[in-house]
Amino acid sequence: MHRSVRDAVRLLDSGDTPLVNDCPCCALREDLVPELRRLAVAGRHRLAVVELWDSVEPQSMAGVIAAADAPLVLTGVATAVDPALVLPYLSNSDDLADVGLAAAPSDRRTVADTSPGSWSTPR
Question: What is the pTM assigned to this prediction?
Answer without folding.
Answer: 0.66
